[in-house]
Amino acid sequence: MARVNENYAKLPGSYLFAEIARRTSAYAEAHPEAKLIKMGIGDVTRPLVPAVVEAMHAAVDDLATSERFHGYGPEQGYDFLREAIAQHDFRARGVEIAVDEIFVSDGAKSDCGNIGDILALDNVVAVCDPVYPVYVDSNAMSGRAGDYDAENERWTDIVYMPTTAENGFCPEFPAEKADVIYLCSPNNPTGTVLNREQLSAWVDYANENGSIIMFDAAYERFIVEEGVPHSIFEIPGARTCAIEFRSFSKTAGFTGARCGYTVVPKELERDGQSLNAMWNRRQTTKFNGASYVIQRGAAAIYTPEGARQIEETLEYYRNNARVIKEGLEAAGFEVYGAVNSPYVWCKTPEGVGSWEFFTKLLEEANVITTPGAGFGPHGEGYVRLTAFGDADATVEAVERIRAM
Amino acid sequence: MARVNENYAKLPGSYLFAEIARRTSAYAEAHPEAKLIKMGIGDVTRPLVPAVVEAMHAAVDDLATSERFHGYGPEQGYDFLREAIAQHDFRARGVEIAVDEIFVSDGAKSDCGNIGDILALDNVVAVCDPVYPVYVDSNAMSGRAGDYDAENERWTDIVYMPTTAENGFCPEFPAEKADVIYLCSPNNPTGTVLNREQLSAWVDYANENGSIIMFDAAYERFIVEEGVPHSIFEIPGARTCAIEFRSFSKTAGFTGARCGYTVVPKELERDGQSLNAMWNRRQTTKFNGASYVIQRGAAAIYTPEGARQIEETLEYYRNNARVIKEGLEAAGFEVYGAVNSPYVWCKTPEGVGSWEFFTKLLEEANVITTPGAGFGPHGEGYVRLTAFGDADATVEAVERIRAM
C-alpha cells in the first residue's frame, strides 16, 4: 500500500488571501457603488518594457525557424543570461560571482521551495516573524517543522525570530542554534532592509555556527539608499555560508512571464559536500531549464536600453511607495519600509488589531490591504500596503485614508 | 552545523550523454572529413508551428500593455489551457477529466521529479529496466532507493522490472509488493507500447495492492495504432490508482519553450488523504505557474489550425521512424518500437555489446546513437535511435548503416 507524506496533513489552511477576497467581495456586494482600490497583493501591474517585449518576440521567431530553433537548453540557464547576470548584478557592484554559480529558473518561489531538497531533514530552521510563508510551508512539508501548534500559530520545531519596530526589524540571534536561516532584504512583508553591519553580523554568526543563510533578495532593485547591501555576497565571509535568491518578477514585471535565479557559491560546503554541485545535480535531475523565450526577455534588461526602461517602471512604483509613506505619515500613522521597497508596513492605531484595521480601511476608505497577522504572530498590529498599483489610484487611496 | 541530504553523495555520475559526446568528438577530431549524423539525443528539431508562434507573439503583446497584462497566474495553470486539455486530450477520447484534476507546469521532467514530494519516504518503488533515469534518480535523492550497488548497477531498495523482447516489453508483476510503479508508454527508451490488456492488468494489480502507478505519457501523440491506450484513464479503475504525466515537448516541439501537465484524479486517496489536494498544495507552495506566454502557445495546438499543423510535424517524425525501422530491418537487424513512437530500439548483432555497437555505427556509418546499457542493465544488447532529425539526414543515415 502506497503511503503519503504525512507532513502535508499537518499544514494549516493557507487562508490569508482567500479570507481577504471573501471579506472584500462581501463588502463589494453590499456596496456596489464603492470603488475599491487594491493594495493588498504583491503583484506588479505595469507592462513589460519595450526592450523585453522585443527580445521575447525575437526569441519566439527563433523557435519558428529550423536554423535558430532551440530545443532543450542547459538546465542551469543559457550563458547569454548567466553572463549578463554575473556582469551587471554582481561584477558592476564589485562582487565576483562565477557563471557556474548562477542557476536560472522559472522563479524564486520554485527555488526557495526546492532548495530544501539538498539539505538533511534534521536541520533546525529559523525564520523571521512576520515572514513570507513559503519558507515555513516548504520546510513543514519535508518534515523539518515538527507539528503545528494552532493555538500559538507556530510550528513546534521552527525557530521564530521576532522582527518588529522594537528591534529595528533586524532579528536577534536565536537562543537555540539555527542551522538554516532565512533572511529577506528588502523584506517581505515589512519593507525594511538589513544594513551592512546587521548583515555582516549574521554572516559571522553563520560561519561560527556552520549555519546556512538563505538570502532572499527578490526586491533588491528597490534599494535606493547608499550603503544598503544589494547582495549578501557583498559581505566578506558570505561565500562560505550563504545562498541567494533573485527574481525578475519585481525587477522587470516577470510575475506572469516567470524567471529568477539562485546563486550557490563554490566555497559553500557542509559534510564535505559542495552545495553548488548538489544544487546542480538537483536541477539537472528535476528541472529542464527556464523557457528560452523568457530567458531572452530577461537578458534584455541588461542592455543599456532595457536597463533604462525597467528603471522607469521601478521609479513609478518607488514613487507610489513614497506617496503612500508620506500620506500615511501626514495622517499620523507610524510607517516602516517603503524607502528601499515596494512594501509599506503601517502600524495600526493603538489597540486596533490588524484584521480590525483591515476592515476599517476597507469600509471607510475602500482600500484593500493585507493584515500583518497573516504573515505571522508578530505581524499583528500592522497592515501591509503595496506600491504596485496605478499611480492615480495610489494617490486617491492615500487621500481617502487621510480623510478617514 | 547545517547538514546536507546524505543521499546525494550516493548518486553515481550521470555519464551517459557526456561519454557519448566524448567518444563522438574524439572520433570527429581524428576524422574531420566525417559527416556525423546525430540520432542519439531525444530532442526535437522542427520549428514551432505557425499557430503556436502566432499565439506566443499575441501573448507577448498582451504583457506589453497595461490593459491585457498578466501577472501571477493560477499555479495550476490558466483555465483556457486546462479546459482545452480536458476537452481535446481526454473528452474527445471518451475520458472525463475535470479541469481541477489538471495541473499545468513547466514540463513533465519537473513533475516526474517533484511528485515524490507528496509520498512517504518508505514506499517501495518499482521501475522498468531499461528506464528514463529521472524516475530512479529523483527517488534516490529523497532516500527511497537505498544504496547504490555499483557492481550490479542497481540501487538496493529499488525494484527493477526487466522489460525486454523476451517479455514483449511488458514488465511482469514484481515478486515483492511495489507501492509506487513507474510505467511509460509509448516507452522511452524502447519505443514500445502497453496495450489495453497489459495496462488493465497493471491497473488491477495497483488497485489490489494499493499501489500508485506513475504513468508517463509524454510520447502519447506518436500513437497511430488503433486500440493502444493514449491515457491510463481509458482503463477502468485507473482513477483510484494512477497519476499521468503529459508533455508538450514532443507533441508540439516545446523542449525549449517548456510546458507540460499532470493529471491527479480526485478519487486517488491513500492514508485518507486526497493526492489531488496534496499535489495542489505542493504546487501552490513551491511553484508559481507556467509562463503565460508559453501557456498561450500550448493552447494554440488545440485550435483546428494548430492541431493540423502539429500533426504535420508529428507525421514528419513518424516518417523518419518508419524509414529507420524499415531500413534497419532490411539490413537484417531486429528492431522494436518506432511504430507508435519516435524511438527505435535496435538489437545489436549476436555477441556485440551496446557500447561496442555504438562505436561500430559511429566509425563505420558516422551515425551517433545511444547505447541501451546507458538506460539500465537490461538495455544491454540494444541501441536507441531517434526519429527527431532531418528527414534527408535520416534517409542517409539508414543507407550508410545498410552499406556497413
Describe this structure in words.
2 copies of one chain form a homodimer. The first copy, chain A, has about 400 residues and is of the alpha/beta class. The first copy, chain A, folds into 2 domains: about 15-40 and about 305-400, Aspartate Aminotransferase, domain 1 (Alpha-Beta Complex), CATH 3.90.1150.10; about 55-300, Aspartate Aminotransferase, domain 2, CATH 3.40.640. Helices cover about 35% and strands about 15% of the residues of chain A. Chain A has a 7-stranded mixed sheet with strand order 2-10-9-8-7-3-6, with helices on both faces. Chain A has a 4-stranded antiparallel sheet with strand order 13-14-17-16. Chain A has a two-stranded parallel sheet with strand order 1-15. In chain A, a hairpin with a 2-residue loop joins β11 and β12. In chain A, α3 (about 80-90) packs parallel to α9 (about 290-300). Chain A is globular. The termini of chain A are far apart. The mean pLDDT of chain A is about 95. The interface between A and B is large, with 80 and 79 residues.
